[in-house]
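Inverse folding, one chain.
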């Protein structure tokens, strides 16, 4: 009897505990679960669209477009702005003064990791979905997953070339025990990037596929994934990135880069704008056009958003146009950042139409306030992203402003061309050159030159750091062509690192460039430290969040 009473008491306790457990885990009223959201194809599409958004961000607690490194840290541009103290963190990029307290680096780091986090959530949510509605086909599911793999690879690619190894997170972090992720090796990050782009290439349709409607223009495509496999392998083949001890050999990287480049070229999805139409690459009407492999999408907006929480993705426009426009009023109310250098201007050959497309030389008699146009003796302006060459969607004249809202707009609609077909042709030429195939390399360099009416490799010379190169090698021609074709598009610094970064070569190159600058500009430049300044420091705030698993880059 006592035994039965004990058993009864134990049973009641067990039932009570179970009831409490069910009560504690019961979902609160009005709670929305992920499973409640993913009930339609449209929900999945919206989730993937959200993965693109951090690519657009140029403003958080400060302004941080990637060209602050790609152009300003290089020999292509000086910081510009109202004074040397205007945007002090960009001044540090320019003059080898960058520290781990740099706010631009913190914003760049966090924006890309927010993109990675969104991608991980999208992959985790979309991969198990089945039979949502009539629009949910295997082709649609593959396309969406392919876009997410592409974007995750793209965010990691942007991070590794600035910071080297970073934490490698490929799933949703949903518990405290996994919060402190260690820095992965450069080799492991590149391996993940290659894996993501390879999955994207397998899943994505080509640019002109029926799976992409007009409203889908700008989404990642098979060609974009192939171009990034070309580009990633080309980076990995460089002496600088090889110095990190990559598992993949230089020869294998060049060979794979060439194979992927050939796929893009033979896809029949892309072509160069014809002779005389180089400037079409930077118009609104030709966005996502024949030469576009991948570009960050922006839209025209009729309001300013300074101070309105733009770091949360408040607006659909780009800050770049406002940042780079003239301060003196010649081409609109801008802030005058990103001044092309005299060194860049001088490397263009005479008769190269690309110089005028890249560099605007303001007329003295048209400046409202000449004193504010100059920065360290330089008045040149970035013409590619500061001027519109056609009308805005509302039909207004886009040159120098946003039509009727110029006085208070801080955003612009011009897309950021990340990968152009000419870039692919030159990367393919570089890969073939790395395989000692000079004839093929010359063929593809000449394709890019022919579009702007210039002579073939071996028939011209050009200046490098103020010195005329009268009989350049094919390698010198390739590097020259990348500089003038892609000038002021944010590529230059990263090219310089992979070409010259190993064994102190970038220090020698940058010191030769700096000797061509004005005395005023030279007075601000500190010493370039080989083995340090090729990459940038991990932001101190990130180190403090993860002190046991993260270490700083050498020298910082």
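Residues assigned per position:
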């Amino acid at each position: 009897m006592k035994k039965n009473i004990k058993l009864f008491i134990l049973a009641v306790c067990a039932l009570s505990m179970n009831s409490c457990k069910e009560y504690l885990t019961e979902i609160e009223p009005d709670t929305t679960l992920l499973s409640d959201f993913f009930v339609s194809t449209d929900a999945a599409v919206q989730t993937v669209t959200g993965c693109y958004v951090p690519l657009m961000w140029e403003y958080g607690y400060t302004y941080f477009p990637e060209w602050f490194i790609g152009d300003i840290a290089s020999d292509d541009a000086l910081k510009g702005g109202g004074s040397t103290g205007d945007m002090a963190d960009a001044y540090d990029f320019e003059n080898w003064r960058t520290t781990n307290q740099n706010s631009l680096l913190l914003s760049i780091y966090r924006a890309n990791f927010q993109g990675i986090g969104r991608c991980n959530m999208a992959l985790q949510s979309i991969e198990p979905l089945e039979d949502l509605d009539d629009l949910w086909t295997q082709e649609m599911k593959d396309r969406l997953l392919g876009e997410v793999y592409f974007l995750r690879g793209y965010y990691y690619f942007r991070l590794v070339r600035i910071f080297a190894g970073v934490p490698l997170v490929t799933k949703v972090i949903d518990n405290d025990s996994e919060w402190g992720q260690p820095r992965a090796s450069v080799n492991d990050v590149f391996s993940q990037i290659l894996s993501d782009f390879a999955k994207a290439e397998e899943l994505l349709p080509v640019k002109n596929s029926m799976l992409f409607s007009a409203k889908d223009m700008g989404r990642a495509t098979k060609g974009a994934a192939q171009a990034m496999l070309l580009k990633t392998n080309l980076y990995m083949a460089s002496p600088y990135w090889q110095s990190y001890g990559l598992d993949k050999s230089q020869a294998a990287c060049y060979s794979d880069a060439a194979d992927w480049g050939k796929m893009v070229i033979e896809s029949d999805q892309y072509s160069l704008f014809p002779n005389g139409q180089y400037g079409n690459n930077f118009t609104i009407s030709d966005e996502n056009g024949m030469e576009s492999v991948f570009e960050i999408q922006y839209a025209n907006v009729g309001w300013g958003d300074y101070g309105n929480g733009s770091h949360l993705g408040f607006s659909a426009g780009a800050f770049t146009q406002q940042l780079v426009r003239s301060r003196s009023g010649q081409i609109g109310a801008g802030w005058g950042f990103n001044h092309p250098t005299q060194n860049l201007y001088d490397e263009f050959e005479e008769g190269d139409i690309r110089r005028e497309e890249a560099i605007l030389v303001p007329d003295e008699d048209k400046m409202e306030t000449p004193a504010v146009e100059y920065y360290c003796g330089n008045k040149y302006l970035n013409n590619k992203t500061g001027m519109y060459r056609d009308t805005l969607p509302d039909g207004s004249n886009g040159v120098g402003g946003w039509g009727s809202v110029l006085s208070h707009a801080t955003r612009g609609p011009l897309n950021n061309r990340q990968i152009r077909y000419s870039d692919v042709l030159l990367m393919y030429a570089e890969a073939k050159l790395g395989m000692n195939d000079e004839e093929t390399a010359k063929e593809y360099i000449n394709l890019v030159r022919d579009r702007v009416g210039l002579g073939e490799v071996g028939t011209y010379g050009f200046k490098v750091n103020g010195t005329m190169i009268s009989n350049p090698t094919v390698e010198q021609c390739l590097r020259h062509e990348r500089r003038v074709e892609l000038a002021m598009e944010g590529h230059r610094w990263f090219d310089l690192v992979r070409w010259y970064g190993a064994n102190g070569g970038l220090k020698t190159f940058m010191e030769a460039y700096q000797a061509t600058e004005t005395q005023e500009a030279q007075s601000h430049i500190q010493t370039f430290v080989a083995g340090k300044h090729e990459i940038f420091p991990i932001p101190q705030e990130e180190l403090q969040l993860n002190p046991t698993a993260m270490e700083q880059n050498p020298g910082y």
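DSSP finds 23 helices and eight strands in the chain. The longest helix spans residues 138-163.
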